Amino acid sequence: MNGQQRKNISPGMEVNIVLKQDQRTGKLTRGIVKDILTKSNTHPHGIKVRLEDGQVGRVKEIL
Questions:
Q1: Which of 4, 18, 24, 54 is 20 to 30 A from 32, alpha carbon to alpha carbon?
Q2: Of 58, 54, 13, nearest to 32 (Cα)?
Q3: PANTHER family, alphabetically (predicted)?
Q4: pLDDT tens sequence across 3-62
Q5: Beta partners for 56?
Q6: Where on the phi/psi map is residue 54: left (φ > 0), alpha (ψ -120 to 50), or beta?
Q7: H/E/C letters for each residue in 1-63?
């Protein structure tokens, strides 16, 4: 599943995100969703989330 729709993502899910500093390289970071930060239902670059370890990025893949 892709991470562009908010309804597909919920706290506790394992996801791959792209951190702000990794947007140019596209390097993915894996983690567990703690908070969903994007308020809209969809976002073309992925829904922004905070992982349990505190990192913030946009969801690229839901695992």
A1: 24
A2: 13
A3: YWBE PROTEIN
A4: 999 999 999 999 999 999 999 999 999 999 999 999 999 999 999 999 999 999 999 999
A5: 50
A6: left
A7: CCCCEHHHCCCCCEEEEEEHHHCCCCCEEEEEEEEECCCCCECCCCCEEEECCCCEEEEEEEC
